[in-house]
Design goal:
This is (Mediterranean fruit fly) hypothetical protein. This protein is of the alpha+beta class and about 160 residues long. The chain has 4 helices and 6 strands.
Length: about 160
Amino acid sequence: MDSQAPAQQQQPQQQQQPTPAEAQPAPNNPITTIGNAAAAVNYIAAAATSSVAAQTATSTNSVPNSVANVVTIPVPIVQNEENYTYVTVKGSLHDRSCAVFGLNETEIQALSKRFGSGLKGAVNGVMVNITPMDMVNTLAQLSYKVICSCGEAEISWTMQREI
């Protein structure tokens, strides 16, 4: 009996590694290709983080293996010191009028001088009797630029200008 005890003590304990995705049974999900790809990514991430955690744990004995799968990536916060003002032009390409939202009083006065009686008040904006593209071009002369648009029959253009 004594001869068996030292033989068992001499064998080092092997650390269990996760099995690759190919060796694992396929998930019950009908889209097994995506499941296998996700399992492969999880295996690679787990293997990479567990080896780093094992190295750290053996050198400092302060990182438990249970948190080896947590990865933190620092992302710097970009401070934007520029200030912008935004307006929205809403209209149809098949119509001869549009609505503009977000203009300040000075810009509304400038548009009323340019378009005269074609400018009418609307809820939170103004209605103008010109095509939406003419309005986008007019606002571009006031240093606005289009940053996005959306819609099909009726389109909204969001424009910005640096203050």
